[in-house]
Amino acid sequence: MRRKRQKSPVKPVLNFISEAGMLKLVRRSGWSVLGIKNVESVAEHSFRCAVIGYALARMEKVPPYRVLLMALFNDIQEARITDLHKMAQRYIDGQKAEDEAFCEQISSLPESIKGELADMRRDYKVQNTKQSVVARDADILECLIQAKEYYEYGFSQATKFMKKAPRFLKTKSARALWQLARKTNLNDWWIKLTEFKR
Question: Would the pTM count as exceeding 0.85?
Answer without folding.
Answer: yes
